[in-house]
Amino acid sequence: MRYERKYRVEQLPAHLVEQVVRMHPASFQRAFPNRQVNNVYFDTSTFTTFHENQSGIAQRKKYRLRWYGPFIQILQNPVLEVKVKENMLGYKESHPIPNSSLQDLDELKAIVNQKLNTHKALKPVLLNSYQRSYWVTPNQKIRLTIDWDLAFHQLFKHPQFNKFHLKDPAVIVELKYAEDQETAASRIMQHLPFRLTKQSKYVEGIEM
């Protein structure tokens, strides 16, 4: 189980946010090369996941397909992720699936529902993409990510994807750490000059 603390930064570009992280007294180090993150989010026909998030339901799940790289149309090495939230803590279940294509959403729907053995009849509703940089403390126990160039496409309205029509200029900073690291994380948060926010890319994309 881990915490995920999120900050929505609207007044600074990504390279200046990275500079803040580099100068942080926790001595964050780059953990991984920058890369593009792509997601297809799944929900029921009545948007159960969306409404549970909006209502603040303590125990809830979020379903997404994730893959990396600049080629949006082809899902290379995609992983089906189920994010489980229990109050403020959460964890993630991961299920690799075969390479797929955004041109066949019905096949994606079938793969996801079969893999999860769910009776909710999940369907693809939102595509999003962003750039991400990865940071970690020297002891490897607290991770931080910076996301920018956020873009969205609502698949339930326009199932055929050619280009992103919805953009968000904000930068999203996320601090991720295990339950037993809360004291250390609190010290780190004291030196982050950003305001904690309730931030969900899925909810944001649906609302847009």
Describe this structure in words.
The chain is α+β, with helices and mostly antiparallel strands. It has a single domain (about 1-205), classed as Beta Barrel (Hypothetical Protein Pfu-838710-001), CATH 2.40.320.10. Helices cover about 20% and strands about 45% of the residues. The protein has 5 helices and 12 strands. It has helices at about 15-20, 50-55, 105-115, 180-190, 200-205, and strands spanning about 1-10, 30-45, 60-70, 75, 80-85, 90-95, 100, 125-135, 140-155, 165-170, 170-180, 195. The strands form 2 sheets. It has an 8-stranded antiparallel beta barrel with strand order 1-6-5-3-2-8-9-11, surrounded by 4 helices. A two-stranded antiparallel sheet has the order 4-7. A hairpin with a 5-residue loop joins β8 (about 125-135) and β9. It is globular, with a radius of gyration of 17 Å. The two termini are about 30 Å apart. The model has no long low-confidence stretch (mean pLDDT about 95).
Features:
208 residues; alpha+beta; Hypothetical Protein Pfu-838710-001; eight-stranded antiparallel beta barrel; 5 helices; 45% strand
CATH superfamily: Hypothetical Protein Pfu-838710-001
- Major sheet: 8 strands, antiparallel, barrel
Order of helices and strands: EHEHEEEEEHEEEEHEH
The CATH C-level name is: Mainly Beta
Roughly what is the average pLDDT, rounded to an integer?
93
Strand order of the largest sheet: 1-6-5-3-2-8-9-11
Flag low-confidence runs.
none
Determine the N-to-C terminus distance.
Answer: 30 Å
Looking at the chains present, what oligomeric state does this protein adopt?
single chain
* Domain tally: 1
Cα shape: globular
CATH arch. level architecture: Beta Barrel
Strand fraction: 35-45%
**Which topology does CATH recognise?**
Hypothetical Protein Pfu-838710-001
Q: How many strands appear in the DSSP assignment?
A: 12
Q: Evaluate the radius of gyration.
A: 17 Å
Q: What level of helicity do the residues show? A: 10-25%
Instruction: Give the helix tally.
Output: 5
